[in-house]
Amino acid sequence: MFDKLAEAVNADHNLVLRGKTCSLTLLIEIDNDEYFIDIVSGEIINVVSGQFLMRHWDLAIRASQATWSKFWQKYPEPGFHDIFAMNRFGHCKIEGNTKVLLSHIRFIKDVVSKPRFLGTGVSSNGKA
């Protein structure tokens, strides 16, 4: 899914334009699977998966496979519709540089929710 995410984000001119001042490494954790998404000037330039000792990230969003599956539904149920709602209700953890998150909040939320519009999500075996 994350290879399609990069393609979808980079093809979305308005989204890339919105994130033109955003450069960060975003960690998405699904159960024990880690996905490091490198974003430079609003474009995803690299996605690396696996467990890396001491790999740098600026912002991490950690949740279970079940939580991500609910979040990435086309019309998610209340409490799973937004990363802040999921955090508030204990469904995920948001960690890292809050300055980056709050400075680029809409861009980051749109990137993370992009799989809703790809017709993909987390499979039943927990793999993206």
Could you characterize what this model shows?
With 128 residues, the protein is of the alpha+beta class. The protein has one domain (2-117): SCP2 sterol-binding domain (Nonspecific Lipid-transfer Protein, Chain A, 2-Layer Sandwich), CATH 3.30.1050.10. 34% of the residues lie in helices and 25% in strands. The protein contains six helices and five strands, in the order H-H-E-E-E-E-H-H-E-H-H. The chain has helices at 2-11, 13-18, 65-71, 83-88, 98-103, 105-113, and strands spanning 24-30, 33-40, 43-49, 59-63, 92-96. It has a five-stranded mixed sheet with strand order 3-2-1-4-5. A hairpin with a 2-residue loop joins strand 2 and strand 3. The protein is globular and about 30 Å long. The relative contact order is 0.23. The mean pLDDT is 92.
Structure characteristics:
128 residues, Nonspecific Lipid-transfer Protein, Chain A, five-stranded mixed beta sheet, 5 strands, globular
Task: Write a brief caption for the model.
This protein has helices at 2-11, 13-18, 65-71, 83-88, 98-103, 105-113; strands spanning 24-30, 33-40, 43-49, 59-63, 92-96. By secondary structure, it is an alpha+beta fold.
Q: Helices and strands in order, then pairings?
A:
Layout: H1 2-11, H2 13-18, E1 24-30, E2 33-40, E3 43-49, E4 59-63, H3 65-71, H4 83-88, E5 92-96, H5 98-103, H6 105-113
Parallel strand pairs: 1-4
Antiparallel strand pairs: 1-2, 2-3, 4-5
Uncertain runs with pLDDT below 50, 5 residues or more? none
From the helix content, strand content and strand pairing, which structural class follows? Answer: alpha+beta
Count of the separate structural domains: 1
Side by side, the strands of the main sheet go 3-2-1-4-5
| Gyration radius, rounded | 13 Å
